[in-house]
TrEMBL record:
<keyword id="KW-0812">Transmembrane</keyword>
<feature type="transmembrane region" description="Helical">
    <location>
        <begin position="480"/>
        <end position="502"/>
    </location>
</feature>
<dbReference type="InterPro" id="IPR036721">
    <property type="entry name" value="RCK_C_sf"/>
</dbReference>
<keyword id="KW-0677">Repeat</keyword>
<dbReference type="GO" id="GO:0005886">
    <property type="term" value="C:plasma membrane"/>
</dbReference>
<dbReference type="Pfam" id="PF03600">
    <property type="entry name" value="CitMHS"/>
</dbReference>
<protein>
    <submittedName>
        <fullName>Di-/tricarboxylate transporter</fullName>
    </submittedName>
</protein>
<keyword id="KW-0472">Membrane</keyword>
<dbReference type="GO" id="GO:0008324">
    <property type="term" value="F:monoatomic cation transmembrane transporter activity"/>
</dbReference>
<feature type="transmembrane region" description="Helical">
    <location>
        <begin position="410"/>
        <end position="443"/>
    </location>
</feature>
<feature type="domain" description="RCK C-terminal">
    <location>
        <begin position="308"/>
        <end position="392"/>
    </location>
</feature>
<dbReference type="GO" id="GO:0006813">
    <property type="term" value="P:potassium ion transport"/>
</dbReference>
<feature type="transmembrane region" description="Helical">
    <location>
        <begin position="508"/>
        <end position="530"/>
    </location>
</feature>
<dbReference type="InterPro" id="IPR006037">
    <property type="entry name" value="RCK_C"/>
</dbReference>
<dbReference type="Pfam" id="PF02080">
    <property type="entry name" value="TrkA_C"/>
</dbReference>
<keyword id="KW-0813">Transport</keyword>
<keyword id="KW-1133">Transmembrane helix</keyword>
Length: 602
């Protein structure tokens, strides 16, 4: 037990500090469990059992199915209709955001739903003269609330269902079983309704307007002091040199954004363009470096762009956009220098936002994390490539992206079948989901080559890595020990209060580590505690599941929070201010709902 507790402590520290990516931490824990088999009682077969676990395979299939829906453009179509309905009315904008995101997230994995809707909602806010800060956090929160509606709403629900089934098989008298497709939907509807009401009333008042409604990116990132126009006079040594040779030295930290010659702007890759007399070079650099280069190269300062519109003509697509880094992106763990991001996409990076802090220079060697936002300037064709690449979330919609809209009826029919067959007890969810994947290939919703890129492999490795930790908790008696310790509070606390405590502890734990890791650690303990005090184990498992699916208090508690962190301009404290009251409110609502529908006592 001590060895298992030590590994849990190690996992918690690594998850919370993000010294390694969370999937790497999970695999490390899995390896240590197998290496320390004499103490952990985890054999090699049990250690790798997470890869063949029905929950892992189901989540893998659901991620592919979600990509199929994305390829048809169905969610974007719904989002655009939502924008047309909302117009410039702020209440309608918020109602549409919450009202569309929640139900859709009940049937499609909520992480890709938010990734798809971030640019839709950002543009809706921009066109409706509303601060994106007022809509993007509700987008993330609504997706979490919607994830509680069905078994397939989140990977957390699927994993919790599988753990409950395993515990029920090991101890038939405990009364645990796999969740049905709509088993907790009645509670999910109540939670979604209460959460939506909070967001529409109290939450919207607590939300700050971090980004101005007009959303000028140059002003938002305070870039005016880092952008400058310099003119090349007749005596400058730069004349005749290419831009790359003259100013491409990485040690100087200079980006040439545009070359202006006789009123014509050149934005395309400029490295090979020769510099002529009287050219104006638009630079991104700090004041100190600017002064040095003006002195060294004999340049003349002539002001600089003050707004986003100065960087591109009004009749063209924007060349300046925010790019959010999702989980699974090749950039995670890399730096701008090591990833060759600029060279791959012919982009200039103007600013870098990480965990709420904006860096405007010397960002080449910053290690990139999930949720970081990069402000890039690039020609339209490069931006289109970024939009099409699932390694990025571009916070602006582009009309050039094409979808397989003719496949929408097939995609909707397949998802309906995936949901209906398990609900009617015709097929297990894992079989239904895999059958849906095959159906999407046969109907052309997805191409065979898209299968592997559709999967967020870090999520799969996370699941596979933490599942053996739950087995070790059970087999060493560690879960029973912790459950017994919590059960001791049952001598002076009623069972419903013990249930509430489990909800709060899980919610706090999920705020600092992965939600999937939370259910793996907490469900066995909750089930044992319920057994010890003669309470309904299913009620305790549900409380843990709902708490792990609603991590509102920190931006790192849930992937969707990280997706909106940068584009919303939020600070860490904003999530605590808006999310903590919601978490507390839903802890009471969920526990009372569980007690009403399923009862707390056996």
């Amino acid at each position: 037990m001590l060895v298992v507790f030590a590994l849990i402590l190690l996992a918690l520290v690594l998850f919370a500090t993000e010294w390694f990516p969370i999937d790497v931490t999970a695999i490390l824990v899995m390896v240590l469990l197998m290496v320390l088999e004499p103490w952990t009682q985890i054999s090699a077969r049990e250690g790798i059992s997470g890869f063949a676990n029905p929950a892992t395979i189901t989540v893998l299939a659901m991620l592919i199915l979600s990509t199929g829906i994305n390829r048809t453009g169905l969610v974007q179509l719904i989002g655009r209709k939502m924008a047309a309905f909302a117009g410039t009315d702020r209440r309608k904008q918020l109602a549409a955001t919450v009202g569309v995101t929640g139900p859709v997230s009940g049937f499609i994995n909520n992480t890709p739903v938010v990734a798809i809707l971030v640019p839709v909602i950002a543009d809706l806010a921009h066109e409706g003269n509303t601060s994106p800060s007022k809509l993007l956090m509700p987008l993330s929160f609504a997706s979490m609330l919607g994830g509680t509606l069905t078994l397939i709403g989140t990977s957390t629900n699927i994993l919790a269902s599988d753990i409950a089934a395993q515990l029920g098989a090991e101890s038939p008298g405990i009364g645990l079983h796999a969740f049905g497709m709509f088993e907790f939907t009645k509670l999910g509807i109540i939670v979604f309704a209460v959460g939506s009401l909070y967001l529409m009333t109290i939450g919207v008042r607590l939300l700050p307007e971090r980004i101005p409604a007009d959303e000028d990116l140059v002003e938002e990132y305070a870039l005016q002091e880092y952008l400058a126009d310099v003119v090349v006079p007749a005596n400058s040594p730069l004349i005749g040199q290419t831009v790359g040779k003259a100013l491409g030295d990485d040690e100087r930290d200079i980006d040439v954004l545009q070359l202006i010659r006789y009123g014509e702007q050149f934005d395309e890759p400029l490295a090979r363009k020769e510099i002529h007399e009287n050219d104006t070079l638009r630079l991104r650099t700090n004041r100190e470096t600017l002064e040095d280069i003006i002195d060294a190269e004999g340049l003349t300062l002539s002001g600089g762009p003050r707004t986003e519109d100065d960087l591109h003509p009004e009749d063209e697509e924007p060349v300046l956009v925010e790019v959010v880094i999702p989980s699974g992106s090749f950039l995670v763990g890399e730096t701008l220098a090591s990833s060759s991001f600029r060279q791959r996409y012919d982009t200039n990076v103007l600013a870098f936002r990480t965990r709420g802090d904006v860096v405007r220079d010397r960002f080449e060697d910053i290690r990139i994390r999930v949720g970081d936002t990069i402000l890039v300037q690039a020609p339209p064709d490069s931006l289109t490539r970024l939009v099409k690449n699932e390694d990025f979330i571009v916070a602006h919609e582009f009309d050039k992206v094409t979808y397989r809209t003719e496949k929408i009826p097939f995609a909707v029919g397949i998802i309906a079948g995936v949901v209906a067959l398990p609900a009617l007890n015709v097929l297990p969810i894992v079989v239904s989901a895999l059958a849906g994947v095959v159906a999407m290939i046969f109907t052309g919703v997805l191409k065979p080559t898209e299968l592997y890129s559709s999967v967020e492999w870090n999520v799969i490795f996370l699941l596979a890595g933490v599942i053996p930790l739950g087995i070790a908790l059970q087999q060493t008696g560690a879960a029973a020990l912790l459950g017994g310790a919590v059960a001791a509070t049952g001598t002076f606390l009623p069972p419903i209060v013990v249930l509430w405590v489990f909800y709060l502890v899980t919610g706090l734990l999920t705020s600092v580590i992965s939600n999937n890791a939370s259910v793996v650690l907490m469900i066995p303990v909750a089930a044992n505690a319920a057994q010890s005090i003669g309470a309904n184990a299913f009620a305790f498992v549900l409380a843990v599941t709902f708490a792990a699916s609603t991590a509102f208090m920190t931006p790192v508690g849930y992937q969707t929070n990280l997706f909106v962190y940068g584009p919303g301009g939020y600070k860490f404290s904003d999530f605590l201010r808006v999310g903590a009251p919601l978490q507390l409110l839903l802890s009471v609502v969920s526990v009372l709902g569980i007690a009403f529908f399923w009862g707390v006592r056996v």
